Amino acid sequence: MNEYHRYDEDDDRQDHHAEINRSGEHDCDMRSAMTTVAAVVNEVRGTDGRSYQLNAQSLHGLIDFMEKVLHSEALPYKVRRDGSVAVLKMAYDIKRLPAYARIHDPSCWYSPDQEFFFDQYRKHEISNYAHVDWTDEEGHGVDQRYADMANDFVLTMREEARKVKLRKRISDWKSNGKNNLAYLVVYLNYLFSRYARLMVVDMVFEYRKTACVSVAEAIERRDALQGRAEREHEAFMNGTVHHEENPRWVSLVELKEDWRHLKQNMCGKRSIFKHLVGYVGRIEYSRDAGHHLHVCFFFDGSKVQDDVGYSLKIAGYWKEEITEGRGYAFSCNVKAAQGGYRNVGVGLIDHYDSVKRGYLWAAVSYFAKATQLVRVKHSGKLQMFLHGKMKKLTGAKRGRPRTKGVEPASSE
């Protein structure tokens, strides 16, 4: 497990969101979203909104490695006729295989290519040779038997992938995330077509029993998580399941009830939610503490403009009314007002403001993308991706008339 790291002041979850679409790549390329998922799964948060990163995983490396396995004919080594071995680029993935395997968390489902890797690595003899210098960094030469073993691992995965029709399984897995993204595009455009301005309030709803109060506690929790992860990994490699919980754990049952209560009350708490017109969000999961909630609320910006004030009201309502003191909330709007974010996609957003709408899309599209990457086991039929519904347009359209166009929200 990597050395403990705490985010800098301007480097937290909102900034991870802002990175998602910066590359301009198609949504099927999920690397940036995976980075955000990893940050959420492997972090704890303090009541002041600071994030403490407990564990950094080699997620990008595993994604790239499986791309090479499934969509190329590359091998890690070339064995010459005289028995000498040429080290090729994929050899660096072979060196990182143990790190890739430790990404596995028994409480989560992963995309089919990653689940496939975990299973294949556990079965293959190469899992017993983490001590080998697979990249010949000391200049001693890679033994031919190790090169043959690594090449066999890659070739075996390719053959097994064909047998189990892995590409079809990957396509089916991605379809849910794509459908969510497609709905989100339509939903945001629907809201901006009905309202000249939206007031966006971005909230993270947490629980006090999970809050981290100091760097010292974060280090202690990191060490405890490392021990649990090692025991879980050892059990997985032996073909069994071992999962440990702790007193801080927030169960999905607890969060589901609080979300049901909040969603129900959003229809009746007119002092706060009278001008609410929509929402999107996600139930998120942390290996250290269980579940929490991240939601963006959309209000009619022609009726309300105090986004910071509304975020504080919602935070107080979550704390006092919904959780009766068990919870607290972090307001991204407060931090945005303090200059804590580089790209601000919260607060008042005008229909024509394509730049700010782009920042908003970068943030909320993560909610849909995350469903495509990691799913929490035992969630039943509960949707982890949360969103409001579109009402049929009847009568005159609300908001001021608009005569000039704006580029619609895009999934790219």
Question: Can you walk through the features of this model?
Answer:
The chain has 412 residues and is of the alpha+beta class. The protein has 14 helices and 13 strands. Helix content is 45%, strand content 16%. Strands 7, 8, 9, 10, 11 and 13 form a 6-stranded antiparallel beta sheet that branches. A 3-stranded antiparallel beta sheet has the order 1-3-2. A hairpin with a 3-residue loop joins strand 8 and strand 9. It starts with a strand and ends in a 25-residue tail after the last strand.
Topology diagram in text:
Blueprint: E1 5-6, H1 13-19, H2 31-41, E2 43-45, E3 51-53, H3 59-71, E4 77-79, E5 85-87, H4 91-95, H5 97-101, E6 108-110, H6 112-123, H7 144-163, H8 166-194, E7 197-207, H9 215-237, H10 252-266, H11 270-273, E8 276-286, E9 290-300, H12 307-322, E10 327-331, H13 332-337, E11 347-350, H14 354-373, E12 374-376, E13 385-387
Antiparallel strand pairs: 1-3, 2-3, 4-5, 6-12, 7-9, 7-10, 7-11, 8-9, 8-13
Biggest pleated-sheet summary = 6 strands, antiparallel
Q: Given the structure, what is the number of helices? A: 14
Using DSSP, what is the number of strands? 13
**How much of the sequence is in beta strands?**
15-25%
* Poorly predicted tracts of residues: 1-29, 405-412
- Would you list the SSEs in sequence order as H and E? EHHEEHEEHHEHHHEHHHEEHEHEHEE
Query: Helix proportion of residues, in percent?
Result: 40-55%
Distance between the termini: 34 Å
